[in-house]
């Protein structure tokens, strides 16, 4: 176990490079199950969730080769145990992404029940409903979900609610299912488009990704050579907020502004000066008197739920009062209690938080409860008076590559220490 110790009060300045996106890497690793030959993947971030997904594929029989260049080669042509074990699924729900590819390629899959998690019940009923419509026979017991299909059929399916991994699972299964599948009310997140682009580069025929209706003309064979993973828009947004909160000036490189439009627009509303270039976004808050701004989370292109906690930290020290409404997950406010320990004035009513800005936060001992909640605590600690100790930081290592190194390079004072 490790913890972070952060001395607050430093203005952050400089350039930071955005890493590859966890949420783009995970489905693409799962999609390699569909391929016949070896593929090389570049720009995968060094994150716990990525290693868990690689371990999952390896445990099923995929061959994984770490290249000196930092890229990874995966060959999943000989999977002999199409099973996602409990030990892996419990640490990472995105393990369910192997379900569609396994079923389409090997005709069966056994997946440990994902259960609820810290941010809500998070069912996978849409994934299962879609696969069942495609012809899968699905059984389950307390521990596992068992899926079998001699042959999958194309479908016309409407998602009852927008689901990112649901869209990805069905899109992957349909890519290797002869005939035309139509998916409606799909997630439009850039990571979904990235997966479609990846699959198309491997010979799939997918159109409409990034829009509500995706059409997939299935094929029998998929193969690709090399793919570079898209940059992480949530990581980029988190560093831009770090600039805002510390009255600093940070340029985030390797990020396409279009993927974080709503984030830089909201930051502009707070008074931060934003400069956009083709592949970078710069936030200058050196002369800004931060103004609070209201947020309501929505599927893309709306405000991402994965940035809600970080904006709450920002609003906690901004002038005025604001509301943050969470509409994607039912229980994503666990950071509130920790931010209050640091002096934030936040009240909660159902899925709405009301925040009254305070002039200062104060360092405290706080606990990370999930990935994005822990990012909000790091941000709060950067401006907290004195020292903040953040426990249970394994959550942050699931989604932020080298976070303390990157922030320290920008002027922060963060150390990681073992908990004895
Ligand atoms: C993905 C992201 C996660 C992000 C979330 C919302 C990955 C690996 N994770 O998670 O970081 O916070 O999108 O942008 O990409 N739902 C159902 N039934 C289903 C599926 C979803 O009721 O079968 C509900 C969920 O409980 C939630 C909503 O739909 O309320 C959206 O969830 P979904 O988009 O599926 O989230 P994930 O794909 O799990």
TrEMBL record:
<dbReference type="GO" id="GO:0008360">
    <property type="term" value="P:regulation of cell shape"/>
</dbReference>
<feature type="binding site">
    <location>
        <position position="328"/>
    </location>
    <ligand>
        <name>UDP-N-acetyl-alpha-D-glucosamine</name>
    </ligand>
</feature>
<dbReference type="Pfam" id="PF00275">
    <property type="entry name" value="EPSP_synthase"/>
</dbReference>
<dbReference type="InterPro" id="IPR013792">
    <property type="entry name" value="RNA3'P_cycl/enolpyr_Trfase_a/b"/>
</dbReference>
<dbReference type="GO" id="GO:0051301">
    <property type="term" value="P:cell division"/>
</dbReference>
<keyword id="KW-0808">Transferase</keyword>
<feature type="modified residue" description="2-(S-cysteinyl)pyruvic acid O-phosphothioketal">
    <location>
        <position position="117"/>
    </location>
</feature>
<feature type="binding site">
    <location>
        <begin position="161"/>
        <end position="164"/>
    </location>
    <ligand>
        <name>UDP-N-acetyl-alpha-D-glucosamine</name>
    </ligand>
</feature>
<comment type="pathway">
    <text>Cell wall biogenesis; peptidoglycan biosynthesis.</text>
</comment>
<keyword id="KW-0963">Cytoplasm</keyword>
<protein>
    <recommendedName>
        <fullName>UDP-N-acetylglucosamine 1-carboxyvinyltransferase</fullName>
        <ecNumber>2.5.1.7</ecNumber>
    </recommendedName>
</protein>
<dbReference type="GO" id="GO:0005737">
    <property type="term" value="C:cytoplasm"/>
</dbReference>
<feature type="active site" description="Proton donor">
    <location>
        <position position="117"/>
    </location>
</feature>
<dbReference type="InterPro" id="IPR036968">
    <property type="entry name" value="Enolpyruvate_Tfrase_sf"/>
</dbReference>
<feature type="binding site">
    <location>
        <position position="306"/>
    </location>
    <ligand>
        <name>UDP-N-acetyl-alpha-D-glucosamine</name>
    </ligand>
</feature>
<dbReference type="GO" id="GO:0019277">
    <property type="term" value="P:UDP-N-acetylgalactosamine biosynthetic process"/>
</dbReference>
<dbReference type="GO" id="GO:0071555">
    <property type="term" value="P:cell wall organization"/>
</dbReference>
<dbReference type="GO" id="GO:0009252">
    <property type="term" value="P:peptidoglycan biosynthetic process"/>
</dbReference>
<comment type="similarity">
    <text>Belongs to the EPSP synthase family. MurA subfamily.</text>
</comment>
<keyword id="KW-0961">Cell wall biogenesis/degradation</keyword>
<dbReference type="InterPro" id="IPR001986">
    <property type="entry name" value="Enolpyruvate_Tfrase_dom"/>
</dbReference>
<dbReference type="GO" id="GO:0008760">
    <property type="term" value="F:UDP-N-acetylglucosamine 1-carboxyvinyltransferase activity"/>
</dbReference>
<dbReference type="InterPro" id="IPR005750">
    <property type="entry name" value="UDP_GlcNAc_COvinyl_MurA"/>
</dbReference>
<dbReference type="InterPro" id="IPR050068">
    <property type="entry name" value="MurA_subfamily"/>
</dbReference>
<feature type="binding site">
    <location>
        <position position="93"/>
    </location>
    <ligand>
        <name>UDP-N-acetyl-alpha-D-glucosamine</name>
    </ligand>
</feature>
<keyword id="KW-0131">Cell cycle</keyword>
<keyword id="KW-0573">Peptidoglycan synthesis</keyword>
<keyword id="KW-0132">Cell division</keyword>
<feature type="binding site">
    <location>
        <begin position="22"/>
        <end position="23"/>
    </location>
    <ligand>
        <name>phosphoenolpyruvate</name>
    </ligand>
</feature>
<keyword id="KW-0670">Pyruvate</keyword>
<comment type="function">
    <text>Cell wall formation. Adds enolpyruvyl to UDP-N-acetylglucosamine.</text>
</comment>
<feature type="domain" description="Enolpyruvate transferase">
    <location>
        <begin position="7"/>
        <end position="407"/>
    </location>
</feature>
<keyword id="KW-0133">Cell shape</keyword>
């Amino acid at each position: 176990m490790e913890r972070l110790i952060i001395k607050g009060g430093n203005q952050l300045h400089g350039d930071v490079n955005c890493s590859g996106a966890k949420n783009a890497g995970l489905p693409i690793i799962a999609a390699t199950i569909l391929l016949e030959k070896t593929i090389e993947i570049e720009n995968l971030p060094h994150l716990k969730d990525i290693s868990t997904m690689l371990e999952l594929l390896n445990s099923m029989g995929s061959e994984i080769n770490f290249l000196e260049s930092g890229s990874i080669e995966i060959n999943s042509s000989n999977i002999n145990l199409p099973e996602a074990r409990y030990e892996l699924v419990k640490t990472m729900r995105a393990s369910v992404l192997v379900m569609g590819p396994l079923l389409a390629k090997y005709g069966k899959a056994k997946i440990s029940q994902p259960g609820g998690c810290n941010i809500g019940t998070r069912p996978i009923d849409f994934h299962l409903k879609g696969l069942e419509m495609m012809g899968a026979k699905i059984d389950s017991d307390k521990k596992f979900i068992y899926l079998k299909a001699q042959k999958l059929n194309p479908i016309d399916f409407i998602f009852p609610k927008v689901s990112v991994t649901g869209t990805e699972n069905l899109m992957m299964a349909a890519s290797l299912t002869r005939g035309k599948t139509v998916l409606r009310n799909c997630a439009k997140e850039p990571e979904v488009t990235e997966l479609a682009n990846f699959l198309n580069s491997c010979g799939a025929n997918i159109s409409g990704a990034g829009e509500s209706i995706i059409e997939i003309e299935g094929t029998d064979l998929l193969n690709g050579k090399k793919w570079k993973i898209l940059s992480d828009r949530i990581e980029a947004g988190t560093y831009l907020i770090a600039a805002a909160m510390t009255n600093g000036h940070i340029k985030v490189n390797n990020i396409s502004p279009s993927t974080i439009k709503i984030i830089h627009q909201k930051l502009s509303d707070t008074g931060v000066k934003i400069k956009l270039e083709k592949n970078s976004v710069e936030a200058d808050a050196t002369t800004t008197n931060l103004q609070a701004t209201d947020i309501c989370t929505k599927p893309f292109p709306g405000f991402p739920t994965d940035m809600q906690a970080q904006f709450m930290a920002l609003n906690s020290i901004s002038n005025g009062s604001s509301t943050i409404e969470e509409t994607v997950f039912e229980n994503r406010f666990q950071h509130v209690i920790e931010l209050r320990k640091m002096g934030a004035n936040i009240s909660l009513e159902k899925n709405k938080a009301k925040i009254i800005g305070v002039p200062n936060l104060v360092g405290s001992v706080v606990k990370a409860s999930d990935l994005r909640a822990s990012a909000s605590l790091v941000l709060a600690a950067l401006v907290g008076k004195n020292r903040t100790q953040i426990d249970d930081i394994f959550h942050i290592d699931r989604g932020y590559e080298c976070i303390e190194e990157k922030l320290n390079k920008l002027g922060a004072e963060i150390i990681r220490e073992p908990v004895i």
